[in-house]
Amino acid sequence: MSSADQPYIDPSEIALEGSAAERFKNRHDAFWSGMRDAAGAPSMVLFAGMVGFGAMGRTNGVDGWFTTLSSFLMFALPGQVVLMEMVITGSSVLAIALAVTLTSTRFVTMTVTLFPQLHEKDRNRNLYASVHLLAMTAWAVSMKEFSSIEAKHRLSYFLGLGLLCWLISVPGTILGYFLAGLVPAPVTLGLVFINPLFFLLTFTEVKPWINRIAICLGCLLAPIFTILDRDTSLLTTGVIAGTIAYYIDRKWIRKRAGLIG
What we know:
Elements (H helix, E strand, L loop, with lengths): L10 H10 L6 H12 L2 H19 L4 H10 L3 H12 L4 H11 L2 H9 L12 H4 L5 H10 L5 H29 L5 H6 L3 H10 L5 H20 L4 H25 L4
């Protein structure tokens, strides 16, 4: 086989394979490493977002138990905000369920991109319980770190990372609920947007250019679609920006790198 026929191999991938084999000694080590990584920016960002959500519940007169249980049982801040807004406006149960389901469809993409990277032995029915720990923050960090983690240790790392993020969400919600009124409303409610900002900043550091292209296109197209139709602007922006970025990646970036014949 000539050098021209050989598949393209990114030198960085070779380096990652070496580091992945040596990063953790066992699953226990990987789990606590995930905990330590979550204890930094991920948990603090999520905690701040939940504080804002708790304050939102108190400000709008929603019961404290309802507000807190939504963080414990749903653990999906955008869906929780939609749930609360529709409860406040007196929407029907069916309408609320449909709206929250549509808001949470992002988890389908997150699941099919993250969990296939786990070791084959970990992809079994027990994995369904682990899905509850999947949130924007844990997914973004895991997608960034999995390339340097050996496959058999990835689930343990994710469990440590996701578990701490989930557990921190409840006290964050409770604190926000009782802080409402003590801190200016724009400040507490503004904390809700810290989590998406962290997600955005995390993915600008990911190497594939397709992620950066999609983010930039989203920033450019969002104001246009907001003017055209405010209610569907977010969905339209995501679909169009993501599709264009995918097309650019398949037609030019990968061909230039020699990944597609």
